[in-house]
Amino acid sequence: MSTRTLLRSAALALVIGTALPVPASPQVGGLIKKKLKQAIEQTRVGTDTATTASAARARAPSFDEVTLEITPALLDQFEKGLTAEAVERKDVDSQIAKFLPHDAFEKCEQSLMRTPEAQAAYREYTKMLSGTDREAMRKASEWYGHRLAEITRPKCGPSPSEAEITKGDLLRGPEKVGQKAAGLTERQYAVLKERILPFCTAAGASGPGSLRIDGGYVYTTAEMEALRPRCAKLLPALR
Question: 37: part of which helix (H) or strand (E)?
């Protein structure tokens, strides 16, 4: 008999029971109602439990050339990548720390405008502007900008706008270094990070079968067994 049929039968019995003449003993009537109520509640509990268990058994993930199955051997490769990435990231952070913020850069640049080099560059620039040819004026401004950069860069570093572009290039570097050290493609390395971080953050789950956690990430039993002992080491590196 299906769960829905059982619930309907129990409810119908309760309705019929209340419609019948009340037995001579009120206690007997109350007992019947109590038993019927218990039957309905037990059926609902069983249904909820079955639904929860079914939802917990997540469909196993499908692996391909991008989404790799997480194994101890793959995690060894991944850890090498994270180590190399961390070393490169420290170097990048030290380079970025040398870039002056906007106000400090302007102050540094202005202090160099009084040097003989900068004054000579300005005189040359004004000579180039003596004509009215727009193309000549454009070239003069371009030359002057390059010349000032040659004068200011050694002491002031890159301009704020140039620094932002350089930061973006530098910050992409560590992950590429890590990916190569791990012997993985850029996408494989990124997907591994995407899958490992939420699992280790959630501390995983125990028991057989596949696991689904927030975000739609799914893991097989073998993957969970491979990941659990590594999370304590992997999580700080991933964060």
Answer: helix 26-56
Q: Whole-angstrom Cα distance, residue 204 to residue 182?
A: 24
Angle, CA of 227, 229 and 235, to the nearest 5°: 70
**The pTM is what?**
0.59
Residues sharing a CB contact under 8 Å with residue 187, sequence separation 6 or more, in sequence order: 66
31 vs 40: which has the higher pLDDT: 31
Q: Where are the domains of the chain?
A: 3-56, 59-88+174-239
Six token digits for residue 155: 């002491």
Neighbours of 96 (CB within 10 A): 13
